[in-house]
Specification:
By secondary structure, this protein is α/β, with parallel strands linked by helices. It has helices at 15-29, 51-60, 91-101, 143-161, 174-179, 182-203, 277-284, 335-346, 352-362; strands spanning 9-12, 38-39, 64-69, 106-111, 135-137, 289-292, 298-305, 310-317, 323-330, 369-373, 376-383, 387-393. Strand 11 and strand 12 (387-393) form a beta hairpin. Helix 2 packs across helix 3 (91-101).
C-alpha cells in the first residue's frame, strides 16, 4: 500500500562513489512512494540563493534520510587532494548535518564491501552518524533481499515518524512530539477521550436503515459481524501511470550499431560521443533521472535498465547540447564488451597497450586505469565490489570549474 503523500525520503550519496546504486534504489522506492516524495538531487539551486539554506530546507522537509556509503565515501578527495568530509561546504556533509541536527532518522546504507565509519572517521558535526544502525546493500544473490529489507525499514521508520491517514491514534510522533509542550499534550488527550466517548454513545443508538452497499445514509459502515469501530471507506484516486513508450527508431546521427530499433529498456551498446542530446533522447526516450552536471554548464541524463542491471549517463553541454561525457555503471559487461563500448563511444578502437591496461584493471590485477583514445580521456574501475564503472570524456570538460562538490 502506498504511503501517505506527506512521507518523504531523502537520498544522500556521492556521485563517484554510489550514484548508480542510489539511482537504482530510487527507482525501487518510487514503486512504493510518490516520485515527488523521493528526493535524490537538490543541485538545481537558483542563482543567487544560499545553497546551505536551500539544502537545509530540502532535508528538513523529509522524514527519513538514506545515507549511501560506498568504498570511497570516507576518504573521497577534491581536486586539491583535501578530504571532502573535512570541508564545511561539502554537500554530503551539509545534507547529513541538517538531518542529524533536526533529529531526522538517518539510515546508513553500506554498499558492497563498504565499512561503517567510526567517530574518528567523521567530523565532529557528523559524529552521531557512527551510532546509527546501518543496512547493507550487497551485490549478487544478496542484492534483492537486501533491497527488500531496505524498503521495509524505510516504511517502518516512516510509520513511526508520520501517522497513517486512516490511523485512529492521534498521539503526536516524531518532530511533532518533540515540539508540543505539556498543556498541548493534555489538551490533545482530552480531545481523544471526547472522541472515544462520542463514538461509544453513537454506537449505542438504534441502528439506521442501511442502503444496498451496507452504508447508513450519512453514517458509518454497517457491521455484519461483531461490533467494531470501522472507519468510513474513502476510495483513493488511482495512481497515475505514464503510458508505455515505444522504442524510438534510430536515426543515422545516433550511430546505434545496427539498423533495427531496440527495445527502450536496452541501453547498451552506448551511443557515440559525437551525438548531441536530441539524438540521445530520440534513440533512448526521456532519461530515468536527471541532475546538474559536476563541471561547467552541464546536465547529466541517466538511463537505467533494471533488466540489464546497468545505468548509462550522458553528460551534455546545456548551451550547445553536445555530449561531453559518457559513463556506464552497474553489473559488469564482458572484457570484449568493454573494448566494444570504448570503440563505440570514441569512434576508434583503443591501442593494444591500452587494451592490456583495461584488461588488467578488469581482472583486478591493478586498481583504476586512466587512458586516452581518439582525443578523449577515460577511466575504468570497480565500484563497491562487483559494480564496474567505465567513463570517457572531453578533456576540456574537467578543466572547467566544478559547480558542486557532491
Amino acid at each position: 500500500m502506498q504511503q501517505t503523500p506527506e512521507s518523504k525520503v531523502f537520498i544522500s550519496y556521492r556521485r563517484e562513489d554510489t550514484s548508480f546504486v542510489a539511482a537504482a534504489v530510487r527507482e525501487k522506492l518510487i514503486q512504493h512512494f510518490r516520485p515527488e516524495n523521493v528526493f535524490m538531487d537538490v543541485d538545481a539551486i537558483p542563482a543567487g540563493r544560499n545553497f546551505r539554506e536551500h539544502l537545509q530546507r530540502a532535508v528538513g522537509e523529509c522524514h527519513v534520510v538514506l545515507a549511501f556509503i560506498g568504498a570511497t565515501w570516507i576518504d573521497a578527495r577534491d581536486d586539491a587532494g583535501g578530504r571532502r568530509l573535512d570541508h564545511e561546504n561539502d554537500w554530503v556533509r551539509l545534507e547529513l548535518e541538517a538531518a542529524l541536527k533536526r533529529d531526522i532518522p538517518v539510515i546508513p546504507v553500506l554498499v558492497g564491501e563498504a565499512r561503517m565509519p567510526t567517530v574518528n572517521d567523521l567530523p565532529a558535526s557528523l559524529s552521531d552518524l557512527a551510532y546509527r544502525q546501518a543496512l547493507s546493500l550487497r551485490q549478487g544473490r544478496d542484492y534483492a533481499p537486501d533491497l527488500e529489507r531496505l524498503v521495509r525499514e524505510v516504511k517502518r521508520t516512516l510509520a513511526q515518524e508520520k501517522p497513517s491517514p486512516t490511523s485512529e491514534s492521534t498521539r503526536p510522533t516524531g518532530h511533532l512530539r518533540r515540539t508540543l509542550d505539556g498543556r498541548s499534550i493534555w489538551l490533545l488527550l482530552a480531545v481523544v477521550v471526547a472522541v472515544f466517548v462520542g463514538s461509544v454513545w453513537y454506537r449505542a443508538q438504534p441502528s439506521r436503515v442501511s442502503t444496498k452497499d451496507g452504508r447508513s445514509p450519512g453514517g458509518p459502515i454497517a457491521s455484519s459481524g461483531p461490533e467494531s469501530f470501522a472507519s468510513p471507506v474513502v476510495d483513493a484516486p488511482p495512481r497515475a501511470t505514464a503510458a508505455p513508450r515505444s522504442a524510438p527508431t534510430p536515426s543515422s546521427t545516433t550511430d546505434p550499431g545496427d539498423s533495427a530499433a531496440r527495445p527502450l529498456h536496452r541501453i547498451l551498446p552506448p551511443l557515440a560521443m559525437t551525438n548531441d542530446r536530441s539524438a540521445v533522447v530520440k534513440y533512448l526516450g526521456e532519461p530515468t533521472w536527471t541532475s546538474k552536471g559536476h563541471f561547467g554548464n552541464t546536465q547529466a541524463d541517466m538511463f537505467y535498465a533494471e533488466s540489464e542491471g546497468r545505468m548509462v549517463t550522458y553528460i551534455w553541454d546545456m548551451s550547445s547540447g553536445r555530449v561531453r561525457q559518457i559513463e556506464i555503471a552497474g553489473d559488469p559487461i564482458s572484457k570484449p564488451g568493454v573494448i566494444d563500448a570504448v570503440t563505440r563511444i570514441a569512434g576508434e578502437a583503443p591501442s593494444s597497450s591500452t587494451k592490456d591496461e583495461l584488461f588488467a584493471a578488469y581482472d583486478r590485477h591493478r586498481g583504476a586505469v586512466t587512458f586516452s583514445v581518439s582525443g578523449l580521456d577515460g577511466e575504468l574501475r570497480w565500484l563497491g565490489g562487483s559494480n564496474l564503472y567505465l567513463a570517457l570524456w572531453d578533456p576540456a570538460l574537467h578543466k572547467e570549474p566544478p559547480v558542486s562538490s557532491r
